[in-house]
Amino acid sequence: MRSGILLFALVVLLGPARIKATPSKTDPYQPVHESWERFGAVYSRVVMHYYDDVNHTNLMRAAIEGLLRELDSYSQYFDEEGLRQLRQDTTGRFAGLGITVGIKDHYPVVIAPIEGTPATRAGLLPGDLIVAIEGEDTFDLSLEEVVNTLRGEPGSIVGITVSRTGHTQWDVAITRELIKIRSVALADLIRPRVGYISMKQTRFSEDTAFEVEQALKKLSSSGMEGLILDLRGNPGGLLAQAAEVADLFLSKRDPIVSIRERDGGREETHFSERPPVFSEHPMVVLIDGGSASAAEIVAGAIQDNDRGLVVGTTSFGKGSVQTIFDLHQPDDTALKLTTALYYTPSGRSIHRAANNYPPYHSYRIRVGDIEVPAALLLNVILEADDYPSAQADLLARFGVEGEEANHLLQRKLGDLVGQMEFDLLADVEYDSGKQYQTRNGRTVYGGGGITPDIVVENRELPNLVQRLQRGRLFFDFVIDYVGGSGGREESLMEVDHRMVEAFHEFVPDSVLAENDGRRELRDLRQRAGDAGWGEPAKAMLDSLGSIIQRGARTAFSPQVEPYIRASLRRELALRLKGRRASLLTELEEDLQLEEAVTLIKDRERFRRLLAGG
Q1: Cis omega (within 30 of 0) for bond into 126
Q2: CATH for 93-180?
Q3: Which of 24, 159, 278, 387 gives a 20 to 30 Å CA spacing to 362?
């Protein structure tokens, strides 16, 4: 050990000596040399004087990760194991049954089967309990164990026992298949001659452009004369697919997006390469704060080429390009580094500089025994090409999988951004407020993200409803309620007063009173007992507890009830009519969608806005 220390110290000391021997006032690498000197001085002291032996591999990894964290949240170092896991798990497909699973009453429960998969063909429905796999009871199995058992080689068969509320149990053998998560969640005429393609909360993966083209042909054959493309909550994915989707709507040789390196380095512009599939009718793109990366490229290309109008709220602003560098020495490692930015056809940057938040200053989300930085979770959501890739990245980085991973990945980007501490980045300057011109001369603004032509805020869900959704209480209630209907399932689609009252009774007081001071009251009771405050104090605390208890039941105010009814309708549609019906139900009373429909129908107003009038 001693000889190793002396050799290391000699190398560190000789290196800076050579650097200083050839100083140059114009040497562009002088700051690099000086930084290496400082790093070498610290490293050599640690090695020589730290009280215990040090692990050089761990120290160097920590140094590399610290360096990358100082740059942005998207740059990342993969060691040999991390790189192996990602290569193994990020294929975009997996062999399984095609279901999303959770836990209910200690058993795995089907949250939603994916259409066109073995699960739907086997007749599985949301709420079905999987009580046994290959004859083995699944009671209290972890989600990881359930998922790993259900997945397997394509073509292999797995036997499961299903229990449905109000029905008897039955056994079913299902053949595993490669499961592909679709980018187009819904394609339908939502009004006469008004087409709607939903990519809401999906991703741009390897078949996205093909899926959108097929949806366009289907809707056109059904008489579509106007299109709404919904990119809300879509965190992006593959750049090539973003270009190909925009290509479906733009004229040949129209610019789509430019990629520029720093200091005027390499610039590459993607142009439309084919005649458009859909070009003769009005088009509206819906975006919000969860639309990012590839979704922003499509929205920006449509807006800047004046092909259509953009409605909603300003998008996320993830417009940076990451390049993978293989680092083969000494091990098989890799570096993902931010190397360029995206620019729309008008020349504005998509990237919002404030999104280069340092992960170590961000809020941390607890998952089991670990904490996941919100900034790094954002990175996982934004950078993965598809949902399985994002799941694999969470597994590689944090060891999180199953339902815990699904809960993390379903968080809204806006909510995560709200948990960042941006005060440390107040001095960051970016292209805020600078004006640019679309092809028709309309004014659009820089500053990060895509600003809609028409800003429409959707209704904000009350905090109570958000808590109920996070706790999956609407889903659990509907499964139990439908199961106890005695075969009258179709009559349940109408959410009547009795159903709402039954839901009120179903929700535990602990959920209603989550933030009403109940925890503080428990702390006070503990202190009162420890300090021996006596009966008067106890009576006062009991009285306060009664007030809180009564307040919990008044949480279902008249203002909240419409949102309760809407959530129940959506879950009923999912349980009784399937995913498509649930998605259509979710669009009811959608203010942004209604504005888009109005624009499509009012051709004169649409043309006037597109011309800049």
Answers
A1: no
A2: 2.30.42.10
A3: 387
Whose CA is closest to 59, among 76, 40, 74?
40
Residue 483 contacts residue 166 (beta carbons within 8 Å): yes
Query: Do residues 151 and 135 lie in contact, with contact meaning Cβ atoms separated by under 8 Å?
Result: no
The residue among 310, 309, 284 whose CA lies nearest residue 610 is 309
| Residue 430: predicted pLDDT | 43
The number of residues making up the chain comes to 613
Please report, for residues 222, 414, 571, the alpha-carbon distance to residue 474 in angstroms, rounded to integers and kept in the order given. Answer: 35, 23, 7
With 0.85 as the threshold, say if the pTM is over it: no
Alpha-carbon distance of 382 to 24, in angstroms, equals 42
Residues 463 and 513: beta-carbon distance below 8 Å: no
Q: Where are the domains of the chain?
A: 2-54, 93-180
The H or E element that residue 375 is part of is: helix 374-383
- pLDDT tens by residue, 211-229: 999 999 999 999 999 999 9
Q: How far apart are CA 287 and CA 265, in angstroms?
A: 31
Half-sphere exposure of 602 (CA within 13 A, CB side): 12
Distance CA 52, CA 48 (A): 10
Distance CA 131, CA 146 (A): 11
